[in-house]
Design brief:
mainly beta, Porin, 14-stranded antiparallel barrel, 18 strands, 48% strand, disordered N terminus
Length: 328
């Protein structure tokens, strides 16, 4: 019975927080999810696969998968990508799917500054699988006695949705913003609690090249970065750094702004390790939950695999600087 109550408790949290999107700790390893302005940012064909397992010790944990493929077309100064995301919350009781296209356009303001707006259009689907949900009137003590008498709402919503973003960067600095779920500006959708709330993200950082000995041919540098987002009365800030010494990548992050949230914020320390090999980047991160939940949730595990092809697409040679944010 205690397990049932726990499941119902977390399902209740999920339903109350229905306006929030899945979150990836390795947000630069999922660039199109962060902002459509990153479509084509590798300047070559790129394929990205992400997996996240959040709170594995809690019954009904959250599993999220995503995939994207994108490329930069120099003849059109444009990046185009496709993406898919699937999120299973509460052990599959609440399922969200997104599939769509992302587009970015590169504008060279001057020899030092590049501005890159982006847009994302996608199909959004979200459903509740009531066959996996238990209600109090189905049980007498610990004994199952029959179906619920609850009047259940429609279990699925689906609609087109959009996001817009901007990205600006210099040789060693970048900054940007993304606004997602623009369809909620419709009065009809805004009044419907089942639809996802608008999300605002602001991100940026700097790249610092570490001075090395002349004979040391390994690329060695540090990225200091932050990512803030606001959605459904929840504020969240990730701030930290990556240390890169080819082929290894190490990182540590802090997440959380507990003093400004209406509800409890699961603050966490995030540890990351990755390796680059022959066009591939493999990275793993672990979210160590802080506070009272440190031993109860199991944190979160996240794996990312990125493969970037050498650019054999032809066209004009690059005439712009690469985005200085982390390569993954």
């Amino acid at each position: 019975m205690r397990k049932l109550i726990t499941i119902l408790f977390f399902i209740g949290i999920l339903l109350q927080a229905n306006g929030q999107d899945p979150h990836f700790s390795q947000f630069y390893a999922n660039p199109i999810n962060l902002a459509p302005s990153f479509a084509g940012s590798a300047d070559a064909p790129r394929f990205v696969l992400n997996f996240r397992d959040q709170w594995p010790k809690v019954p009904g944990n959250i599993i999220t998968y995503s995939f994207s493929a994108d490329n930069y077309f120099s003849n059109f100064n444009s990046g185009i990508g496709i993406f898919f995301l699937s999120d299973y919350a509460g052990g599959g009781k609440l399922v969200t799917n997104n599939i769509g296209l992302a587009y970015s356009y590169k504008v060279k303001i001057n020899r030092d500054f590049i501005f890159q707006p982006g847009i994302k259009a996608y199909y959004y689907s979200r459903r509740i699988d009531y066959s996996k949900v238990s209600f109090a009137d189905e049980y007498f003590g610990d004994q199952y006695i029959g179906n619920t008498s609850e009047v259940l709402p429609i279990d699925k919503v689906q609609h087109a949705d959009f996001a817009i973003s901007v990205l600006g960067y210099l040789e060693d600095y970048w900054f940007g913003a993304n606004v997602d779920h623009l369809m909620v500006i419709s009065p009809e959708l805004n009044a419907d609690y089942r639809y996802t709330n608008m999300r605002l993200s602001v991100f940026g950082g700097m790249k610092y090249n570490i001075k090395s000995r002349v004979r040391n041919k390994k690329n060695e540098y540090i990225h200091i970065a932050l990512n803030y987002y606001y959605q459904s009365s929840t504020h969240q800030l990730d701030v930290g750094f990556y240390y890169n010494r080819n082929p290894l990548v190490l990182g540590i992050w802090y997440r959380g702004i507990p003093v400004v949230n209406d509800y409890y914020s699961a603050d966490a320390l995030i540890y990351l390790a990755g390796i680059k090999y022959n066009g591939f980047v493999f990275s793993y991160s672990y979210d160590m939950t802080l506070g009272k939940l440190i031993s109860r949730t199991g944190g979160a595990h996240e794996i990312s695999i990125i493969y970037t092809l050498k650019n054999h697409m032809g066209g004009r040679a690059q005439k712009h600087k690469a985005i200085p944010c982390p390569e993954f």
